[in-house]
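Entry:
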Amino acid sequence: MESKERRSAIKKIIATSGTIVLGDVMKGSIDQTKTSKKMEIKKLKENINHAVCKWCYPDIPLDEFSEKAKDIGIKGIDLLRPDEWHVAKKHGLICSMGTDFFASIKRGFNDKGNHASLISNYEGLIKKAADNGIQQVIVFSGDRKGINDDEGWDNCAKGLEPLVKLAEKLGVTLTMELLNSKVNHKDYQCDHTLWGVELVNKIGSPNFKLLYDIYHMQIMEGDIIATIQNYHDYFSHYHTGGVPGRNEINDSQELNYTAIMEAIQKTGYTGFVAQEFIPTYEDKMVALAEGIRICDV
């Protein structure tokens, strides 16, 4: 109850004065003399490379968002298209996970009928990523639509084979996202860690890995920290999100993100952890800053 009252008070202060007062929640990490237009976090520990998914902030223009994200210690922005990469770069950020309009969660590599168009489109995206210093590009299994696991693994491996070879040549990693099929993406095939692990083993390349989405995998299977400890070699990227609801990652939800980040750090991981929660605070950048501080271990 105390924490709920504290969050409620914070939101009221922001709404009435526009001033950031986060002493308790952020433990002094934000300069309280700054307004929400220019937030700054004191020096981060640099153990986690922080990133964020822009799609969670649709009302903030990318140029403005990039500037504010840089101010709070973020280094990368996920899921930007090639025509957006230069905006992040202008503010000293990189696109930490590349994508484009054709990348589809529902129409993926598990369906041989999608291979021709996906291979053609991804060849161009991989080359653009390499030319711009972007190290990871997202891919999806697609929905099952009656495709069993064995067929799904075989089709994905076959469709991804020429792209993985290109990625190896150009120094790009193709990263398949693990998504839940219970709440958000009904029928998605790569919906359990072990399904993705089997595909990584089948492809057998250091340039094909998994995006371990903590929110999605908590819904599907739980056991987050043990999974990270046991399978971290298969993961090249992480996403966050509060469970249930996919909102802030603070004590309003069931996951202990500080402990999870400590587990990730102990594996020797040097990639990005991207915040992918939908903020509910009136000032969405305050919510993002809070998430960064929680994950800064």
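Confidence is low (pLDDT under 50) at residues 9-38.
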